[in-house]
Amino acid sequence: MKKKNFLYSLIGILIGSFGAHAQAPGGVSGDLRIWLKADNGFTSSQWTDQSPAGNNYTQSNASRQPFLQPANARYNFNPVVSFGTTGADARFMVVPSGKPFTANRLNGNIFIIVNRNSDTTYRDYLGFGNTGTGAGLMQANSPVLTASFNGNKAMQLYPYNPPNSPNQKLDIGKTYLSDVSWEIGVAGGMKHGLNSFVTSAPGTFAAGYALTANGSILGSQPEVTDGNMSEVIAYERVLTDAELQRVRSYLAIKYATSLDQTTPYSYVNSQGTTIWDAASNSGYSNNIAGIGRDDASALKQVQSKSINSTNEILISLGNSASQDNATHAAANSFDNDREFLTWGTNGTVGFTPYTNSGFPSVTHRFSKVWKAQTSNYNINGNDDVYFNVLRGLINSFTLSEKPLYLIMSTTSDFSSNTHFIPIGTNTHTVDGEEYVSEPYRVASKAFNGFTSNGTFYFTIAGTPIGPGGVLGNFWNRADKDVTAVSGTVNQWVDQMFGIKTSQVADVTTKPNYVQVNDAATAATFNFNPYIDFTNTNQAIGNEGVAPFEGSNSELEMFYVIKDNVWTANNRFFGVNFDLKNSAAGAAIYDWNTLTQANYLSRGNTPTSNNATNTVLNPALSTTLSNISNVSLSATNSTVQHRLNGSGIGTNLTGQTVYIGQGGFVYGANNQSSMPGNEVGITAQIAEHLAFGFALTETERRQVESYLAIKYGTTLADLTTDTNYRNSTGNPVFTADGTYQYDIFGVAKDLRGGLDQRISKSINNDGGQATNIITASTDNNFINQNDTHANQLTDGQYLIFASNNGAQTFTGKTITAADGTQFNNSLALQWKATDTNKVGCINLRFDATNIPALASGENYYMLISQDPSFTNSIYQKVVRTNNTIDVIPNFADNSNSYFTLAKANLNITGSTVKGGQVGISSIPGLLPSASDTWLELNAKSKGMVITRVSDANNIPAGNRLKGMIVYDTTKKEFKVYNGTEWRTLGTSTSTSIFCN
Question: In the prediction, which pLDDT does 763 show?
């Protein structure tokens, strides 16, 4: 047999040299007996063999006929044949006896592109030794390529045992390139390849189990397939290593399965020429994919995206990507045979500071870098390359509203010879995903690093934003990119890299999406929407994408959450959730898991069950929302916790910390086919952040400040750092010994992702049951935050804090700037800190618990620029039912102090001889306001204030406090306060009232 193998290899090489051989996988045609392709020759009754052997698989029984599923991204935009599910829906096809091999007792080599739906028992794919024309399921086990259901759940050449390697495991729902070869009578002669990772199976293959000419069954036997196949290839010999590499490369390019690079493994074309050099590209060995044409392999893959991760760039030839490869290939073709563009990534998540003098707005690029290699590429024709970028992948850039670019370079750090391609905003949909696409016109030679045979690097650059200005790995916020059907969460898209949270496994019980529409929902998360888990069986997540990929040493997470019922072990969130691990016996759903009372981290390996619990003391509140923070360090072997900005519980040292590299789940992990055993929560989640590095103290306070302002939560520890900080780390509020309670505010900080337009402390002012102040950018005090007037500009903050005084008029006597004395001021006082001139702000006081007025009294709001309330300015305010509304303008870039007072100022006036003065163009209309000395009335006329070109032209001796003029040059009303002219409606040094 060895001589035969050598002979066929030699023949293949010689024929290939003269270009006369027929098409075959990877150009390997010798002893090819089966070549079934979902994209060529399939009907439900017959799957036509593309090999010269003509081994067509057929099925005449309609109920057992497999069916073609449309092309989708799971198969790199190629179609797939479904063999049904279980029971009566199980499907199969056959070839008669005398086929498919020319004889029994031959060696063999099988390749299959497979995707399994379940793993509860054996799942058969291709068997030999039996056939039939009936509808009943039959055994064909001599041998049969099946997926095992125990151990590592690997492919198995039954009746022999599967290879004992976790690298051979087949995850549910994921597409694989699986190959197996057997060599009769040779110990260790059964070799399994999974995406080219090869492991020998135990045992020696006996000739009696090679009944490969006694018919064959493709698909379900009594051990049903319950899965899909896109391509099936079989040779009646064992291929050489070089031939294996050609066939695997062909399939890997076509289906973007990414060949294993544990040991560098290059991709080659049908002539064995390298198209992806694994050694020189070793740092970019993740998620390898490619497009190319190879006539000897009948390969024309014109759009491709790694199936390993949804968060990859889709590259297409000639135009924006189409719904499927066949459609795109009909309109776009490579000019050259054996023309390829192949790429892989460095597998890094995050951002790297990056600047370029020609593009001053750019501050960062992705840490993830793609390296591309061209082979025989026509750079003089029309083989343009289109980069189709997932809209979600660039969320962090687009939120800044600054330009972003795809950048190409011949240097891996993009320090020189860099070409910038602007990324626009127009999107198109491919397989249900939104993409923005931009071309590189190869014939333009705009980037000299794109050559016929060479390499270059590409990534995304722009101005990203992150929570509090800190760029992380994962950012789920309920006020962005949540889609819900009839109130039930369908999808939740992360704002850093577009990771999707949706249905996990077959669990259909999902939480609700709650928007703010009344006072009750407004109070939960400071007028922001939230995800509401109403039952402990609800779950959402993503078992296929690892949010902390590459974060092996450090992890820090923040949750904004309100738990309804105190339960110590109910799961909020768990990482390393992955269905592929369900048989390993490990509690894979528990790595890096937050519950209400503790935090759990398991072991230091993906299969360790050693648990480290750290107790949260105090536990999370069940009445208020919480900002919960946990940091893990595998480097320092520590686990630390913070609650609302303050360290809590026991921070453990000397711990073995493993940071999960698998998928994740919110809520229950024990439903249906999920492998966990823990129930979920009845709780609300508004935001979840994760950083794959250790935050500095300043960065942590930036994130805490962002969350605290957004959700109206007062930070508990204001001694270590007394400041609330903006996205650049600068203070926007400083707590002192008096004003450190019930802190809230409105702010807009694009770099930090903050746009809070209405706010109210969720803490209890003065110990009362009802909060007192709501601040809003308009006169609505109920609706959801993002519906309010967008009048703040970037960098503006207005933060409030109280002295925790009582809601009683027992405060000190305050003398106003004009000498008016207020003996009954509220013991509850506030400080307002303005950053960047916010201007007028609407305030509403909830007066439910504020004492009523005596006869003749009025309420007044007093504002001063010093905490002693000297030189206060005051304005009468009116109580309507249980609310007091006022629109102050606090001092710019400074602190202001304010409170309420009640007083009878005896402003009753005296009778003017002849009564009140009225000027009216409306006949018979007399002054109506009892406390007005002058009243003007008209239907179509107005009052004109004295007009001057410059208020300063009025001599100082003629200026009186309270004088008002209209400045015709600046087009502003000016008021003289006794010291200076000030513009009405803005503030320079002293607070005034906008209303």
Answer: 83
Give all strands (DSSP E) within 766-857, no chain letters. Answer: 773-776, 796-802, 814-815, 821-822, 824-825, 830-835, 842-846
H-run or E-run covering 289: strand 286-294
- Which residue, among 389, 396, 401, 391, has the nearest Cα to 459 in the 3D structure? 389
CA distances to 98, 735, 833, 834 from 731, in Å: 82, 10, 10, 11
Q: What is the pTM of this model?
A: 0.83
Whole-number Å distance between alpha carbons of 927 and 915: 10
Q: What is d(CA 159, CA 182) in angstroms, rounded to the nearest whole number?
A: 12
81 confidence band (pLDDT: 50, 70, 90):
very high
pLDDT in tens, 665-700: 888 877 776 666 677 888 899 999 999 888 999 999
Mean pLDDT, residues 601-615: 47
> Does residue 470 surpass a pLDDT of 70?
yes
pLDDT in tens, 11-48: 344 434 334 448 999 999 999 999 999 999 999 999 99
Q: Distance between CA atoms of 619 and 628, rounded to whole angstroms?
A: 10
Q: The tokens of 556 are what?
A: 């820090």
Whose tokens are 């590499």? That residue is 245
The residue length of the chain stands at: 995
Instruction: State how far the alpha carbon of 378 is from the alpha carbons of 334, 337, 426, in Å.
Output: 8, 10, 29
- 2: helix, coil or strand? helix
Q: How many CB atoms lie within 10 A of CB 465?
A: 28
| Distance between CA atoms of residues 446 and 527, nearest Å | 50
Burial class (CB in 10 A: 0-12, 13-18, 19+), 866: exposed
d(CA 659, CA 413): 28
